[in-house]
Structures are given as C-alpha cells and as structure tokens.
Write a structure and sequence with these properties.
The complex is a heterodimer of chains A (447) and B (316).
Chain A (H helix, E strand, L loop, with lengths): L4 H7 L13 H9 L13 H11 L6 E3 L6 E3 L17 E7 L5 H10 L1 E4 L2 E4 L2 E5 L5 H14 L5 E4 L3 H11 L5 E5 L4 H11 L3 E4 L3 H13 L5 E4 L5 H17 L10 E3 L5 H13 L4 E4 L4 H14 L13 E4 L8 E5 L2 H14 L3 E6 L6 H6 L5 H11 L9 E4 L7 H7 L4 E4 L7 H7 L5
Parallel strand pairs in A: 3-6, 3-12, 6-7, 7-8, 8-9, 9-10, 11-12, 14-15, 16-17
Antiparallel strand pairs in A: 1-2, 4-5, 13-15
Helix pairs in contact in A: 1-2, 4-5, 5-6, 6-7, 10-11, 12-16, 14-15
Chain B lengths: L1 E2 L12 E2 L20 E7 L8 H7 L6 H10 L4 E5 L12 H14 L4 E4 L4 H14 L6 E5 L4 H11 L2 E5 L4 H13 L7 E4 L9 H16 L9 E3 L1 H5 L3 H4 L11 H18 L2 E6 L2 H16 L14
Classes of the chains: A alpha/beta (447), B alpha/beta (316).
C-alpha cells in the first residue's frame, strides 16, 4: 500500500539540508509520494527508511512468473476484490497434471500442452503442465520431467513432489526453465528454499491453515526466496472459497505481505463435471493457478471461456470485429440487420436472430465497442456510419433486395439513412433484441 | 422469501424459502447464510422442438406432457419448477387463458413442489394469461414471471390479490433493478414477495456482466439498501442451452470436445459462477446439471465432500 507524503516525511531526516534538490524534506516527501523523484537523492536516508519505502511500493500481491520465453505466464499483482471495482489483471493460469509413473505420460502432456481453441477471434490455450512425482522415486521423476520437457518444449512446468531429492533431480534437467517448485511444507522447507534459491525458481508453499502458510512464508522468504505461490491445501468447495477470499482480503486490505502471493488450486475430481465445478469456483474466486486432472477438451473449452469472461476489463468492453456476419445460412432473400460492435450487443442480437430460426445477414458497425444507444448518443453510430458500413461491406451484391433493418433505438435516423443510401428502404427494427424473432416473423418480407 | 404454500388455499407438499444472507455467498465464517440456494427445473407447456437435442433426448416423451414432465423433473431432484407458458405465444400456438390455467393446474396436480410460472414473453399475452393463472391458483404462492417495467401493474395486482409473489426482471443494471423494486413496492406488494432477476448472461455470452451486477446488488444489499435486498433468480438453463456450444453436436471445432459433456458443463459452469455472485435460485434444464449443482450447493453450504466427488488420484 502506497504511503502518503506525510507518512514518508516522518521517515526522512527532517533536516531540510536541500541536498536532494528540494527546498524542504516535506517537499521531497510529497514528490516521492507522487513517484516524481527517487529516494536515492537523499544522502542521509537510513536503511530502515529504505526498507519501509520499498515494502510500501511493492504490489500487495506479488507478480510471479513461471516458465521462460514466449509461453511463460505471470500471475498475481491483483489489486481488487471485485472485478467491477477496477479489473482483474493477470488471468488464471490453467494447468494440467500428469504423473511420472503413467505409461501415457508424454502423450497426455502433449495433448494438454498443444490444446488451442479459437474464440471471439483469439486463439486461447492452456498454460502449462504439472508433473507429479507419484512414483515416489527421484530417478523416475527426473526421467519423466526430461521426457515431458522434450516433448513439450517451452511449456511452463510445475514440479510436484514433497521430496527435495526428487525436485533436485528434476531441476538438474529443467532448472534453467524457471519451473514452479511444489511444494515447501513445514517438513521440508529448508531444502526446498535452498533449491529455489539456487535455481532462481518460484516456490509454492503448502499448509492447511492461514497461520501455517504465514509461518512458512516467513521461513522461506527469510531463506531468500522471493517468488512464492500459496497452496491452501483445501479439498472442498466451501473451505477453498473461504480461504481464497481471506487470502485476497488479507493481502489487499490488511497489507499482509506474508500472504500476498498468487494462489494455486487443485481442482481434480473423479468425475469431469465435478472437476468443472471446482475449477469454475476457483476461477470465479481468486485462484491464480488452477490445476486440472482430466485431459478433456469438453472441460478445457468452457473453463478457458470462463477465464476470458471473468478477466475481461469491465471498463474496456470486449468488442467484436466489425464486419458482415452470417447467422445461419442466409440467402439473397434473407433480412439484413445492422448493429454495433459492443460484444454484448452483438451476442444479444445474434442470439435472438439465431433463436428465430430465420437465417440473416448481420452487419456490425465499428462503434468503438459501445452499445447502440451509447454510441448513438456519442455520435459514433449515425446515418453516415451506417451508410459507410453498408457500402464498405459489399453486402449489396449478396442481396436480392435493398432493405436494411436498423435498431429501434435509432429509429430517428431512418430518414437520414435513406438519404445517405439512395435506393435503400430503411426498416425500423425493435428496440430490444428479444423482440427480433417476432419482428422477423411478422414484419419482414423481402419483396 | 417463501415460494409455495401448504395451507390457506395452497396445496403444495413442500415450500422453498431463500434469502436471509448476512454476508457474501457462502462466506459463513463471517456471517449467516441460513438458507441454501434452491435449484429449479424448467419445463414447458408445449413440446419444445427447438431445444437442444441433448435435452430432448434426456427428457424423452415426458416433455410432451407438462404433468409427466413435472413429475420426472421432481424425481430428478428439482426443488421447485419453472413452467414456461410458451404455447401462449402468438407464434407458437396462441393458447388462451383457459389453456394456460389448465397447464398450470395439471402441473400443480402432478407434483407437490412450488411453481414459478413464466408467461410467453409477449407483454399483452403475459398480462392476459398470468392474471388468469394468478386467479385460478389463489393461495398457492406461485411466482409470476416476468414482472417488468412495462407490465408490473398488472402482474403485481395479480400477485397482490391472490397471495402470490413476482419475479422482477431488469436488464443487467443495478439502478434499473432498484427502480423496478420501488415501483413494485409502491403498489403495496411487500418486498419479501419479490424475486430479483438481474438478467442472466450465459458462459461466453455476457456472464461477466451478470456476475458483476449481481455482486454489486448483493454488496448494496449488505450495506442496507432495501431495494436490492431481494433474493436473486437466474435463468441459467434457458441462457446456456441457447448457445451454439450447447446446441450443436456436429459441425463445430473438435477442440470443443464431446458434445454431451461440454453442453452439461456449460450449464454447470454458468450456474456455479452465478451462485458465487449471489444467485438464490438457479433455473436449470438438464437433470445431470440439476444433480451436480445441488451437490455443489450442499458442499458450499456444509463443507462435506460427497463420496462421488471425493478427491482422487486420477488417472489421465
């Protein structure tokens, strides 16, 4: 939590020596609070002050990077409890767990690491792999890690074993790839912390209580590890939600550094639907890393979609690409509707058109991602824009008719639109998307 | 608030009471959540031909008869039912009040759980059939839906005179929700007879808007704003099963995975997300989702991990 100018002033020598270039210590403090200068300009600042100011400047939830190169992912740095307060910033990393004693290990890892799906014009993927030392044998683990690393180059890894010897062996293979070590516990933290320090890797700490996590956090940071991930080791939905909420609140509202780290949650369950429940709950509330056990696209796709939805910046609505869309398989006689490129507007309209059962041409105008009413009020969805969109789209060649249905909210534009689009008939559609099906049924006719 | 009545004209054998939260959803370590959210099943008065093949297959021939469907839905675990009077829609049969009442009575006769009755969604027809239903079921404490800024006078009057409750629906906006509640309460319907439907966006289709508006409504309620303190209802089934992800077994990318699994997870994920942002009633469509979401609610309420959900060391 940032300090105020006055709080900083109290930590300064208060001698007004002017050597920093400012007339008084207070002026210097005020500038520091605005991040307009550097503490190093004060030659007399104490180490104590430096530590206090550094701590205050650090984000309440540390940003932790796992992996290296293009596919590395970063989690943490969150600043709010509710996305409507500002936005969530670093989306949940979705990982898949494989086991070192599984005969199909490499195949499973490849499926998960190679998964990619298109959604709203973006290619979405999973973020990496957890390799678990289920065999309990260090040699098996090192071999498995090497095999997965070779088969899935670049995929961020989590090395999961409570045995420091197994982790050490695996780090011998992928120590330079910045894998997340999972996990330091009360029983093994010294050895795990030493390994994390030696290889500059992030380290997960696991305990089943907040107190236990705070204590471990103090121990491993004391041993020099800075990049931590916390595993509250919960297995049920209720405790998982409670602990994740408490961790986020303690970090943000109480500025509790010891617990200000991203959370990892294991969602594995026997039934894929049960796993979906746990993973959904974890994405919706505060997990920065969610680990799945089922290798099933029918699970991946909904979760990747949910993550994209929850981590959308509420102040920057998702836009859809402004272009001509086909709903169903429209023909030359099918209706042509126009709307704006605010994603929710587009989805409402296309959803209703689809449920009407009537194939349509849906023209989406570039209105800066705003809804019909908002963009109309801002002058971004006017007759000129509508006419230009129609002309640029080339839709005219696709149609046997010259009829354009505009949203009911901009009924007042119909006259101007007819002027801008000579030869076209402008029809005023319903104000609400939900009334589109009955409109298409009762009002629309191509002739 | 309570739906369904067992006496004074009510013939239900069970009722559903929701609300009463003193904290954010399921955070019982810091405040009371005395009642668990309820799971409703959506049924329709006419055969819903355009529903996803996954739904039509699982409900079978029972979906051709509202009473049989109701019984099957209750057997599948539904704690209450949402009957949609689609047959009254001018384009889908244009049934009149008499047929609407007959369908509602058939369902009431077949099952003992409380009922939410949805009009066809066309303002004039909603008024006509919902008022007839309200009068014919006096004392049953059914929920009349939807009550919007366009028709609230008629619907609220129907609820007031016959001992029912209403579902007030507004489009994903805190202030519009409050405004409708003010209009409803100004007519004399007490606010413990109002369910709030903030409009549901399905996973992938605006769920983040519902999630955030519901969180804002619940936070305002906890701060003491009486016009946001109504239990919330989400039409999860209708929205999630409308999407291509739940309707199309073929002709979609293989990355979407197995159709049956994906479609049910789509509904489950939508429901679980909105339960976490404050839903008190979720209206679902698929029996597997009803089962799974009920288990999730039980687990969120009690912390117990049901045997079937126990953490395993799964094979991949």
């Amino acid at each position: 939590m940032a300090l105020s100018g006055l709080q900083i002033y109290k930590l300064l020598p208060q001698t007004n020596c002017k050597e920093c270039g400012f007339p008084t210590c207070l002026a210097f403090a005020m500038k520091l609070a605005q991040k307009g200068t550097e503490l190093a300009k004060c030659p007399y600042v104490t180490d104590e002050t430096r530590v206090a100011l550094d701590a205050a400047a650090a984000p309440p939830i540390r940003l932790v990077t796992v992996g290296t190169g293009e596919r590395a992912f970063a989690v943490g740095n969150e600043t709010v409890l509710f996305r409507h307060e500002k936005t969530f910033v670093h989306q949940t990393a979705l990982l898949v767990r494989v086991h070192d004693d599984d005969a199909d290990l490499v195949e499973a890892a490849k499926l998960a690491a190679g998964y990619a799906v298109e959604r709203v014009g973006m290619t979405l993927t999973l973020d990496g792999l957890v390799i678990e030392n289920r065999s309990g044998a260090a040699a098996t683990f090192a071999k498995a890690v090497a095999a997965v690393h070779e088969a899935c180059p670049g995929a961020p890894l989590v090395l999961k074993s409570d045995d420091p010897a197994a982790i050490e062996g695996a780090l011998g293979v992928v120590g330079a790839e910045r894998p997340l070590i999972h996990a330091a516990t009360a029983a093994n933290w010294q050895a795990m912390a030493a390994l994390a320090t030696k290889h500059t890797c992030p380290l997960a700490i696991r305990a089943d209580s907040l107190d236990g996590l705070a204590e471990l956090s103090a121990q491993v940071t004391g041993a020099g590890v800075e990049d931590l991930v916390v595993d509250p080791a919960t297995q049920g939905l209720r405790d998982g939600l409670a602990l994740a909420t408490l961790l986020r609140r303690l970090a943000l509202k109480k500025n509790l550094r010891a617990l200000g780290y991203p959370i990892i949650a294991f969602a594995g369950r026997e039934a894929v639907e049960g796993e979906a429940v746990l993973a959904t709950a974890a994405i919706a509330k505060y997990a920065s890393i969610v680990v799945l056990d089922h290798i099933d696209p029918a699970l991946f796709y909904p979760l990747i979609t949910l993550r994209q939805n929850i981590y959308t910046d509420p102040q920057k609505p998702i836009q859809v690409e402004p272009k001509l869309y086909q709903v169903g398989v429209p023909t030359a006689d099918s209706p042509l509707l126009i709307t704006t490129n605010f994603s929710l507007t587009y989805f409402s309209v296309s959803g209703e058109v689809e449920s009407s059962g009537k194939p349509c041409w849906l023209l989406v105008a570039d209105a800066d991602g705003q809804s019909v009413l908002t963009s109309w009020a801002a002058g971004k969805f006017d007759a000129l824009k509508i006419a230009k969109t129609v002309k640029d789209s080339g839709v005219e060649q696709q149609l046997s008719h010259h009829k354009l249905i505009i949203p009911g909210h901009v009924a007042s534009l119909s006259g101007e639109c007819e002027e801008e689009l000579p030869g076209w008939e402008i029809m005023v559609g319903p104000r609400d998307a939900v009334d589109i099906p009955s409109y298409l049924k009762t009002v629309w006719s191509p002739s | 608030m309570t739906l369904g009545a067992t006496g004074d004209g009510g013939t239900r054998t069970s009722t559903v009471t929701v609300g009463g939260e003193a904290t954010l959803p399921f955070l019982q370590f810091e405040g009371a959540m005395p009642l668990k959210p309820a799971v409703a099943a959506e049924i329709v008065d006419i055969y819903p031909e355009d529903w996803s093949p996954a739904l039509l297959a699982v409900w079978g021939d029972e979906a051709r008869d509202p009473a049989a469907w109701a019984a099957k839905a209750v057997a599948a675990g539904a704690e209450l039912l949402a009957l949609k009077l689609r047959g009254c829609h001018p384009d889908q049969g244009d049934h009149g009040p008499a047929e609407a009442v007959a369908a509602v009575k058939a369902v009431l006769g077949a099952v003992g759980v409380p009922l939410i009755v949805y009009g066809p969604g066309v303002a004039d027809k909603d008024n006509e059939v919902l008022v007839a239903v309200a009068e014919a079921t006096k004392g049953e404490r059914i929920a009349l839906a939807n009550c919007t800024d366009k028709n609230y006078r008629t619907i609220v009057a129907g609820a007031l005179g016959n001992g029912h409750v209403v579902v007030g629906q507004t489009p994903i906006d805190v202030n519009l929700a409050k405004q409708l509640n003010i209009l409803i309460s100004d007519m004399g319907l007490s606010l413990d007879r109002v369910l709030l439907d903030p409009t549901t966006g399905a996973l992938g289709y605006g769920i983040e808007y519902s999630y955030s508006v519901m969180e804002r409504l619940r936070l305002a309620a906890l701060m003491g704003d009486s016009m946001t303190q109504q239990p919330m209802i989400c039409t999860v089934g209708e929205e999630s099963w409308r999407q291509k992800e739940s309707r199309s077994p073929d002709g979609v990318p293989p990355e979407w995975g197995d159709f049956a699994t994906r479609a049910v997870i789509w509904e489950i994920a939508t429901a679980v997300t909105l339960l976490q942002s404050g839903a008190d009633i979720v209206v679902l469509r698929h029996p597997a989702a009803i089962d799974r979401v009920k288990q999730a609610i039980d687990e969120l309420m009690t912390g117990a991990v049901p045997e079937a959900l126990a953490v395993s060391s799964p094979a991949v």
